Amino acid sequence: MVRHLLGVLAFAATFGLLAHAVRRLRLTLLPGWVGPPGALVDLVTIAATVVAVTQVLGVVGIYRWWAVVPAFGLVAVLAEGLA
User: Fold this and answer.
1) CA 71, 58, 21: angle at the middle one, nearest 5?
2) Per residue of the chain (83 residues), what is the pLDDT tens digit?
3) Which of 14, 29, 72, 78 is the most buried (most CB within 10 A)?
4) Rounded to whole angstroms, how far apart are CA atoms 82 and 25?
5) Residue 27 vs residues 23, 33, 46, 50, 68: alpha-carbon distances, Å
6) Model-level pTM?
């Protein structure tokens, strides 16, 4: 139960960071895309980022929770830096 709760909290924290960074990046690169088109761009970018990061971690052989959480955090920080 505790391990499940920690996993949910880690997911919420990393997803929140990633969603915020992607939204800021979209507002910087595509300032005119607001409303539903902007939300769609955010969702597609988040989905593509999740797939890309997990694929890279899987190829390297470290697809574990202790590697996924910092990887998404690092991607979020990099996206925030670009914004």
Assistant:
1) 25
2) 888 898 889 888 888 989 999 999 999 999 999 999 999 999 999 999 999 999 999 999 998 888 888 998 899 888 888 87
3) 72
4) 7
5) 6, 8, 14, 20, 26
6) 0.83
